[in-house]
């Protein structure tokens, strides 16, 4: 008789059942994070987190004008990340920071160059246009307005 070969999963690999059991908790995580940032909306309007504060009365992100130098782009982290750039003196533009390839948040590199850390897509921070794939579509434009010494995005 041939011996029966059995394979077992190593203890560090979760079973399908364990993964499926964890999915409801994982699905709720973004809601919990969003609720957590919303509760901090009573912070002073000048306070920032990673370059901007989470919420305003209008629902947009705020960032001081001084944090967006001429010829550069800045990513505002939060429940909904944005990119804000100043391509020309006094002209501000904003985009959704989600890469149009698979949704990873782009990072602001040198000047107006934005890069996706997942697959290397590159975008122009002044226009949102794709400069290098695999992304094929430009970043989605979002409204930005100046409110005194702050920019309100979204």
Annotate the secondary structure layout.
Elements: H1 16-38, E1 61-64, E2 73-76, E3 82-88, E4 91-96, E5 107-108, E6 113-115, E7 122-124, E8 130-132, E9 141-142, E10 144-147, E11 150-153
Antiparallel strand pairs: 1-11, 2-3, 3-4, 4-9, 5-6, 6-7, 7-8, 10-11
Account of the 3D structure:
The N and C termini lie far apart (71 Å). The strands form 3 sheets. A 4-stranded antiparallel sheet has the order 2-3-4-9, with no helix packed on it. A 4-stranded antiparallel sheet has the order 5-6-7-8, with no helix packed on it. A 3-stranded antiparallel sheet has the order 1-11-10, with no helix packed on it. It has a domain at 61-153: 3-layer Sandwich (Rieske Iron-sulfur Protein). Mean pLDDT is 75; it is low at 4-12 and 27-57. It is built from 1 helix and 11 strands; from the N terminus they run H-E-E-E-E-E-E-E-E-E-E-E. It is globular, with a radius of gyration of 21 Å. It is α+β, with helices and mostly antiparallel strands and 154 residues long.
Considering the protein shown, what is the CATH homologous superfamily of one domain? Rieske [2Fe-2S] iron-sulphur domain
**What is the makeup of the main sheet?**
4 strands, antiparallel
Quickly give the CATH architecture of one domain. Answer: 3-layer Sandwich
Cα-based radius of gyration, to the nearest Å: 21 Å
Low-confidence stretches: 4-12, 27-57
Strand order in the sheet with the most strands: 2-3-4-9
- Number of distinct helices: 1
Shape: globular
Give the end-to-end Cα distance, rounded to a whole number of Å: 71 Å
CATH level 1 class label of one domain:
Mainly Beta
Number of strands: 11
State the share of residues found in helices, binned by percent. Answer: 10-25%
SSE order: HEEEEEEEEEEE
Protein name: Rieske (2Fe-2S) protein
Organism: Tsukamurella sputi
GO molecular function: 2 iron, 2 sulfur cluster binding; metal ion binding; monooxygenase activity; oxidoreductase activity, acting on paired donors, with incorporation or reduction of molecular oxygen
InterPro entries: Rieske_2Fe-2S (IPR017941), Rieske_2Fe-2S_sf (IPR036922), Rieske_Fe-S_prot_C (IPR005805)
